[in-house]
Amino acid sequence: MRLRGQLGLGPNDPLAIMCGAVRPYKNVDGFIEALSDRRLSCVKGLIAGLEAGYPDVDSPDPLRHTRRLVSQFGICDRVRLIPRFLSIYEMAELFEAADLVLLPYRHGSGSGQLMLAMTFCKVIVATGVGWTDEYLSDYESGYLVSDPSAAAIVDGIKQALTTPVKPAVPHPKFHPVEVARTALTALGIHSDTEGTAYVGD
């Protein structure tokens, strides 16, 4: 895979990612501290996006806070930073390349990246905020951590890495036909068996 090759990753090197808007509630701090644990020395990290909600966000470096933490914990050789938003195609490539998607949020009402990670059949390590626990209740490759601390994140990643990998089969709920049917139903539009849509009474 092109991106994994660019990152110098072998087929058995786990890549954990966080991406999008990098805000304090998303807990990039806990993720970086967790990666510094010697028990995760085999894991590479990639953080892509733009910071918001941190001091000096108008700095020339859009990931200033994140970069400082990576340096502070001495893991510059294992964490790649992409200080910008990614295009749809770049995001798809990133999710294809990733082994783990980290969502160790401190609080929140939901996550679009959770849905994206499930669609790409990725292993997810997350806290149970914003109904994440409900979404992952029947998702076989989801690992909930007890809290957003670095120690809990380490435990979640270790569990994910030591559990036998399950076949990458999309959950039926996320099949494009089912997604479309759910959206149409929510709009009061129904379809017959041949796929013809019509507005219900």
User: Proportion of β residues?
Assistant: 15-25%
Biggest sheet architecture: 6 strands, parallel
Count of alpha/pi helices = 8
Distance between the termini: 50 Å
How do the SSEs run, as a string of H and E?
Answer: HEHEHEHEHEHEHHEE
Low-confidence stretches: 193-201
Estimate the mean pLDDT confidence. Answer: 86
Tell me the strand order in the biggest sheet.
3-2-1-4-5-6
Helix content: 25-40%
Q: What Rg, in angstroms, do the CA atoms define?
A: 18 Å
What's the overall geometry? globular
Structural class: alpha/beta
Strand count: 8
What features would you describe in this structure?
With 201 residues, the chain is an alpha/beta fold. Helices cover 34% and strands 18% of the residues. The protein contains eight helices and eight strands, in the order αβαβαβαβαβαβααββ. The chain has helices spanning 2-6, 28-35, 64-72, 88-97, 112-119, 132-135, 150-162, 176-186, and strands at residues 15-22, 44-51, 79-82, 100-103, 123-126, 142-144, 189-191, 197-199. The strands form two sheets. Strands 3-2-1-4-5-6 form a six-stranded parallel sheet, with helices on both faces. β5, α6 and β6 (142-144) form a beta-alpha-beta unit. α2 (28-35) crosses α7. It starts with a helix and ends with a strand. The relative contact order is 0.14. Mean pLDDT is 86; it is low at 193-201.
